[in-house]
């Protein structure tokens, strides 16, 4: 493995790519310590930002890389990872026939990734409070792989956070939307609500859409206390998960050991 591309969607918002660049920096620092000939990791983007995917691939190819591991910096298997990214990689394989590309899985395919999501909630909830609830906010997708990955995430978080009621709200495409999901929890008796944006970048959804939806909820239910956590891209627990995915070690490690390594916590 000569090179690694972490590929994000990209955003027009200033600073939205900060989480990706931080992860790339951490991966390069880790590999420099672990390996005599460490691979070079670069961050790039599908649609917005610099460098774009093709420019990042060309940069690694120019350094003499013969194999490039392309790791989606995407949570779920929607159109970008299951359609657009493979198509563009096929085009690059034809352009650089001497460089092989290997496409990795989405972050949600790592068995311990939901524990990274859970970490954001743990510091903001009181499991002993019968009025405590937790709402996880995702983007939403029409692609069945993404729909199923979100279902698995929600089910796993309900297990991990029990007895705290857990719900998922969608920013787009799927239902219930964020306001409806939060309102449903309120109707169940929740008066302390923790909201976790399961989003990777500090773009429009994180900075505007989630706070707007929560503001509407608070206007409707002023007696419910709401805590909005950082978004997932700000958690340090993603770095070892991406390290595992890039290194193709997940299949060779048991679920329990991966969970401990990635989060420092038992499963």
Automatic annotation (TrEMBL):
UniProt cross-references to Gene3D superfamilies, sorted A to Z: 3.40.50.1400
Protein's recorded name: Cobalamin biosynthesis protein CbiX
Pfam families assigned to the protein according to its UniProt record, in alphabetical order: CbiX
Domain of life: Bacteria
InterPro entries cross-referenced by the UniProt entry: CbiX-like, Sirohydro_Cobaltochel/CbiX
UniProt entry keywords in alphabetical sequence: Lyase, Metal-binding
The species this protein was found in: Caldilineaceae bacterium SB0662_bin_9
UniProt GO molecular function: lyase activity; metal ion binding
